[in-house]
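Annotated sample (chain length 249).
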Amino acid sequence: MKQIKVLIFLVLFPILHFGQLSTKVNEYFQQISQSKRAESSHIGVSGSESEVYKLHLELDKIATDKEIEYIAYNGNPVAKYYASNILFNRKSKSLEKLFKYYLKTKDSVSVLKGCVGGVSSLDTKIYLNVISEKQLIDKMEWEKKWKDSMIINKKNNTPEYLSVVEMFNAKTIWSKKEIDFLTQKLDQIVLNDLNSSEKMVEFICGHYLYTRKKVPYYEKIAYFEKKYHSEYIKKYLKFCRYGIIDPEE
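Output written by the structure step:
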């Protein structure tokens, strides 16, 4: 009887899976899933274009939000990595739910950015996407001021101007207010779960130590300092309570 159930599952799984994705989306999904690591747009010493990165761009062009969400939950770590990036760039309302899911599953993925390789957990990847977006917004604002100043000074047609403009490609559909709001919601998801990992809590503390920001819910972090006896968490609590940051910070 057990063998029959397994056989039925093996027969039905491809059908159910295919039903979630269009033919072309499934094709890109399968190709991305063959990669053993996620990659940035250019990799290696020579800066060659990443084939798997290009595949994810093609996937983004044609896949619906529902299809990307399906991949974010059911793909291998590499596919999940790219799917979560796409959902963030689309300002998906499912990000919080997906973040909760990755906190539970503790999935991680091998990543190569340029010449630097490492392993990234999918929950911290979503959080990093969110907090990094503020820097991108700042860059966009600087670029706009710079371009406006060049136009005012009538330098916008010089070769030097055009070559510099080609280097600028900062784009986002997020606002700072939206990013701040989402960051706080992700913080609460982590801090309200007493089983959250030491690494994730330290990641949050590291972000706020770097930005020199005291969050109003810092007392929730105290629980994790007692649980993990983390010196890094302790440093952030010290900053929150006394405004002190050790010189090595």
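Annotation: The chain is about 65% helix and 10% strand.
Annotation: The two ends are 62 Å apart (CA to CA).
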